[in-house]
Design brief:
This protein is α+β, with helices and mostly antiparallel strands. Among the domains are: about 100 residues, Macroglobulin (MG2) domain (Immunoglobulin-like); about 100 residues, Immunoglobulin-like. It contains three helices and 19 strands. It has a five-stranded mixed sheet with strand order 3-9-8-5-6, with no helix packed on it. A five-stranded mixed sheet has the order 13-19-18-15-16, with helices on one face. A hairpin with a 2-residue loop joins β5 and β6. The longest helix has about 35 residues. It is globular, with a radius of gyration of 27 Å.
């Protein structure tokens, strides 16, 4: 009799032990992706110019999604990849049971090739992946046209070539002069807009460890991989938000929103750097009102 009682208690304890662990399995947010498309722009919250092949001159590609979710609020992320390298990540808040939302990626003309973008939920589950290409249909025609131009150059008289060269040099000089004036104007705007209540310290480096910048520099090699922009924000009275806006050769290529939760708050973002992106870079810190609060320039060597 006693062995049977012992056996019954063992089974009972096993069942109780099993039931204790069931609540530890976290349920999903139950996000339903109703529709996801790629397009060239968005008008009145609707995707326009839906495609999977885009010209190198497209400017921007949009990832438009419609999601529904019972457990709100929640978040999804759009993660953009070029040739299997992460280029950008955008976090989007889902505030309503059914909501349309989108992100966009600025496309430089030289960024041809295979791309894809993923929508990822709060539990890092990939809900959808869409592949697209930049320049697949026009590259061959462009290359052929350039070859024809090079061949025709041999038949142009030397005097005409010299005149064209002199004209080009004159245009280059004018562009450099106007660019110098633009740089001066940017410095003046910065001086006026940085006289604010908050103080933002900015550092650039190759990584962040224990909430501090590492590999701090302003000149980096082409194979650096990623550049981090680190900030220490002081003087805020209540939670706010800033943006890191990244520029390559004066072209805006990425923007990241960062929450600042309390005074003396550290935060950072990073930009993936492709090996062929040598040149002049800068990152601007923009406050919640859209004012330029701080900026730092850096250079990628070839």
């Amino acid at each position: 009799m006693y062995p049977n009682i012992r056996k019954g208690l063992t089974v009972f304890c096993t069942m109780v032990s099993f039931s204790v662990f069931i609540p530890e399995i976290l349920p999903a947010k139950n996000i339903i992706l109703e529709k996801a498309v790629l397009c060239s722009h968005v008008a009145k919250n609707e995707a326009v110019g839906i495609a999977t092949d885009f010209s190198p001159e497209v400017g921007k590609v949009y990832f438009w999604t419609k999601v529904s979710c019972e457990n709100i609020p929640t978040k999804v992320r759009h993660i953009w990849y070029h040739e299997n390298t992460e280029m950008a990540e955008v976090t989007l808040e889902i505030k309503y049971p059914s909501m349309r939302t989108f992100s966009c990626k600025k496309i430089m003309p030289q960024w041809t090739g295979a791309w894809y973008v993923e929508i990822v939920d709060d539990n890092n589950l990939v809900l959808k992946r869409l592949d697209f290409t930049i320049g697949s249909s026009e590259e061959g025609v462009k290359e052929e046209q350039e070859q024809k131009i090079e061949k025709n150059v041999d038949n142009i008289p030397q005097k005409v070539l010299e005149e064209n060269k002199a004209e080009t040099e004159a245009i280059d000089a004018a562009e450099k002069e106007s660019m110098a004036a633009l740089n001066i104007a940017e410095e003046i705007v910065m001086d006026e807009s940085t006289a604010k209540d908050i103080d933002i310290e900015i550092k650039l480096g190759t990584g962040v460890k224990e909430r501090e910048i590492i590999g701090e520099a302003r000149i980096f090699p082409a194979d650096v991989g990623k550049i981090y922009c680190w900030n220490l924000i002081a003087g805020i009275q209540e939670p706010t938000e800033i943006k890191h806006v990244w520029y390559y050769n004066n072209e805006k290529i990425a923007e990241t929103s960062l929450k600042v939760k309390y005074d003396n708050y550290r935060t950072w973002s990073y930009k993936t750097i492709m090996p062929n992106w040598a040149g002049d870079w800068r990152v601007e810190i923009v406050d919640a009102k859209g004012n330029l609060a701080q900026k730092a320039s850096f250079k990628i060597n070839p």
